[in-house]
Write a structure and sequence with these properties.
Four copies of one chain form a homotetramer. Chain A is α/β, with parallel strands linked by helices and 170 residues long. The first copy, chain A, contains six helices and seven strands, in the order βαβαββαβαβαβα. A seven-stranded parallel beta sheet of chain A has the order 4-3-2-1-5-6-7, sandwiched between helices. In chain A, helix 5 links the parallel strand 6 and strand 7. The longest helix of chain A is centred in the N-terminal third of the chain and has 16 residues. The first copy, chain A, is globular, with a radius of gyration of 14 Å. Chains in contact: A-B, A-C, A-D, B-C, B-D, C-D. At the A-B interface, helix 4 of A face helix 4 of B.
Chain lengths: 170, 170, 170, 170
């Protein structure tokens, strides 16, 4: 297997994304591209769009995995669009496709992706100060089974470096 | 539409279910049956099994919605088994099928079902003192959109009464 | 396990259902109820609705498993509604939940459910003369692996009797 | 939107793939790469593996969308692996992600993907002489709604050219 590392970025959707989170997501996307990794997102707005824009500006490759059955519903910064047609159950598809996860803000949907990644013991790094789920679960386990601690870093650069260093791929 | 109310019970799976949670779940299942509602669960062990046993002892009807594609993988207290074959993405199917949700303990999987129900603004009642997710999110919203508050009651009886009173069905 | 047999009825949706198929589906639903089995359908119109009406008139129990995330989208003849939210991928959920399948007419969606049931070697009986998929694949295998032959009968009564006699449940 | 065209190749799985189909799939993958399109497959063996090998030899980009929740289950010729965790319901994800579909042999699973693509009116081209589904449905519609005719060509080169010419993307 010679495939590149796949880093998933999750966080606020378009309906409640803050400027702080949007900017952090752009930087995270840019850094992922610089590291030569593939960016995976849920393919829609807010943090998903911002990270995709950053990765494109950094010359990276972006895969958007959307809930709808119509590829045209994705944001316009995707190199490839996976149209699942399974609604928000696609949160499992994004989570399972990640070698590592970066969390920027986020609400209930982000919490679902985070929990799904946790169940598979995938490395998760939150960007501190971006609000929502990213700040709520810092340095904690999701449940009493303590499968994988949610790590945190105070900058996009550090978060991406750490996430990539923790992947199982060589 | 003359269908009965469908109450979903979620919580600890078999691998980390406590005796307190198991007993509470049995009582919750029994109460749901007494109210003439249909019990829906994820069809496996722990809280899912306990609630199903209670509902059967109360003469109720139980539907287990399992991750596997083989109906034989369910617990033996189901009147009907829905074999989804979609893995833990079935957490969305249980959540969307609920007119109301009762939470008893629970870990990451429970948090996923809870978040999915929250996104649809389905009434959610936690049984206090059962640990895990049920105690962690009491009287809170899952995210800043404040779509639906997680309510709580200190007994199985009260939790079931309140959950059923909050359903939209007549 | 003391659960009842679960018989899935598949066929033409509302947009291209014939009167012949609708009438046959009603009779099939009625017979399933008389045999004391649970009727499972995709929960929408056409053959799904007709079979559900028949089963209700026969005093049976009907579970509708719909593509949408909103239970209100089902037809009004369901005793329980499973809202999957996974779109037409729910064709796998209906197929996997069946102890036996009855086919009445049907197009591409019916062919998907049929193929999914075939892959699990679930007994399948087509009602002859109802058109579409039911007449196209009679007494054939879906593919060269010959996992399970599509059987056929020339009346709803015989189709139901045969389907139920072929289930693995006692 | 500047994304490349996404061509899905479907057909026999590893358990019943013929040499004729395997060779045709390799050529199809090679041609897709030459046209600068992205190859999408179900990520496993047989036709999926052969097409992926061809695309890699042609310098193309391959995305494998697998049923499992573990990326390691894919074949080793993928540039990116989407691990859905939803079992064979992933047949809808592959179908919905396609701008065009090429069919090479194939059994029940192939028929499901074909039917899902048909429901969305996605262009479908079968490679003649490769057996199974590819030869069975040539120049036909899947059902009476006649949404999209299954086209055919007698060589991998022609099939790829035609499929790509029929996509809606510019």
């Amino acid at each position: 297997m010679t495939r590149k590392k796949q880093v998933l970025v999750i966080g606020f959707g378009k309906d409640h994304c803050t400027e702080v989170a949007y900017d952090a997501a752009y930087q995270v996307g840019l850094e992922i591209a610089k590291h030569g990794a593939i960016l995976i997102t849920g393919g829609l707005g807010g943090v998903m769009e911002a990270a995709s824009r950053g990765a494109k500006d950094g010359g990276g490759f972006v895969i958007g995995i959307i809930p709808q059955d119509d590829k045209e519903m994705s944001n316009t910064y995707c190199d490839a669009v996976i149209a699942t047609g399974i609604g928000f159950a696609r949160d499992f598809v994004t989570a399972y496709s990640a070698d590592a996860v970066i969390v920027i803000g986020g609400g209930a949907g982000t919490l679902i992706e985070l929990s799904a990644a946790y169940q598979r013991k995938t490395p998760i790094v939150a960007v501190k100060g971006t609000g929502g789920v990213a700040d709520r679960f810092v340095d904690e386990y999701i449940d009493d089974r303590e499968l994988e601690k949610i790590l945190s870093e105070d900058s996009p650069e550090k978060a991406v470096s750490r996430a990539i260093s923790l992947t199982n791929l060589e």
